[in-house]
What does this fold into?
Amino acid sequence: MWKIVFGFGILCSALLLLFQLADYRLLKTDANLELIIFIIATVFFVLGLIFRKRLMSNSVNEETSSLTAYDFKKKYDLSNREFEVVEQLTKGLSNKEIATQLFVSESTIKTHLSNIYTKLEVSNRVQAINKLQSETLS
It folds into this structure.
C-alpha cells in the first residue's frame, strides 16, 4: 500500500512541477495549458486503472485463500473456536499467546489443540500446520 501512496505522491509532485514550468514558460511547446492538463489527467486515469486492477487481483487472491480455509474447516469438522486456534497456530503463537488473543485460559487452548489433533489425525502442532498449508495451497 505504501508503494501506491509513494507513487501517487511522486506523480503529484511531477504534476505541480509541470504546472510551474508551464507558468514560467519554461516548457518550450506550442501546447496550451488545457492540453497539458488533459495529458496529465489521462496519465492519472490510466495509472488508476492499473492500480485498481492490482488491488482487485490481490483481494480476489485473499478471498480465494479464505474460501479454501473455510473448506478445510468444513472438511475436518472444526468448530469456529477450533478454527480460530488453528489460525493462531499458523501465526506461530504459543499456547499462552493464543489464549491471550482469544481471551480464554491456556488449559482451554490445550483442550482445543487436543481436539484439533484428533480431527486432523496428527500428533503435534507442526504436523497440523503442515497439513493446513498443504491442503489450502493445493
Remarks:
- Residues 1-63 form one domain.
- The chain is about 80% helix and 0% strand.
- The helical segments are 2-23, 33-75, 80-90, 95-102, 106-120, 125-137.
- The mean pLDDT is 78.
